Amino acid sequence: EVTREFTLTGHTAGIECLAISPDGRTLVSGDDAASVIVWNLTTGELVQSIQCPFNGAISAVVWIHLRDTKDTCFVFGCADGSLHVYRRKGANLSFEFVSVNSEGHDGPIEDLCFDPVHCRIASVGGGHPQVWKVSSTDLTTGNTILDNPPKSSATARSVAFYEEGCSVLVGYLESREMSCFVIEPWSLKWTRSLKSRIGNWAFCNRDGADLFITNLVDGIDQYKLPDFVKVKVFPHAIKSNFPLQVATTHRGTWVVSGGDSGFARLFDRQSGQLLQLLHH
User: Fold this and answer.
1) pLDDT tens digit string along 40-62?
2) What is the pLDDT of residues 168-215, one digit of tens each?
3) Where are the WD repeats (predicted)?
4) What CATH number is associated with residue 181?
5) Chain-centroid distance, C-alpha 60
6) Nearest of 241, 257, 265 to residue 173 by alpha carbon
7) Where in the sequence is the domain holding 119, given as residue range(s)?
8) Residue 78, domain member (yes or no)
C-alpha cells in the first residue's frame, strides 16, 4: 500500500508538472502562476522558489544529468515557449539560473524529456518537436538540431526518446497519430494511426518498449512497440474530456494515472488491476 508521507504546501495556483530527481531526494514542481518550487523529499521542506512572471505558466520540467560533473540540473518550459536551465553546484542547497532560450518554439512547451546517452533534450510545443544538445561546459539550450522543425496542425502533446536515443516519438493530441523521427540526420521514420484517441502518454522501456496512452474515453491503453499491438486496457471512468497525466513507476511495475477530481489511480502493470486510489 502507498501511504502519504508529506503534504507539500507552497503553490498558489494549479500545478501543471512534477519531476523527481534521479536520486529520489528532490522534487521540482511548476504551476499556472509561473512559479517553480524545489522540495526536499527527505524532510518535506520547501528549498527554493523561482518566479517567472513574464513567461507564463510552467508547463513541463525535466532533470538532466551531464557527463564529467556531479552538478544537479533541471530544465523547465513555459507557456511562451521558453526553456529555462537551472544548476546546483556541489553541496549548495539552491539552484542558480544558467540560461533561457525563447527561440525554439512559438507556442507553449507541452513536454520535455532527456537522453543521457547523447546528452540531448527533446521538447514539443507549437505543433512541433525540437532537439537540443547540452554539455557540462555549455548548458545553454541554444544548440538546436532542427533549423526548420516540421509543424503539425494538431497539438504535439508528448515526446520521448526511442531506440537508445537515436530517435524521438511524438504524440499528437486527439489525432490518433504517433510519429517517429530519426534525429541525425533528421527525418520522419514513420507515422502510425492508432485505434486510441491520444491524451497524454508515457513511454516505458522495461521488458520491451511500451506506450501507455490515456485514451480520453474509458481508461489507459497499452501498446507494444514497434508493431503497435494493443495488449492491455487499464479501465476507469472518465467524467470530463480532459487529457489526464500518466506515468510508470516502481521500476516499471506500476502505472499511475491522474483522476478527475483530486485523486490518482495506481494500477499493477502486469495484471491491469486497480491497486489503490491516492486521494489529495
Assistant:
1) 999 999 999 999 999 999 999 99
2) 999 998 788 999 999 999 999 999 999 998 999 999 988 889 999 999
3) 8-49
4) 2.130.10.10
5) 6
6) 241
7) 1-193
8) yes
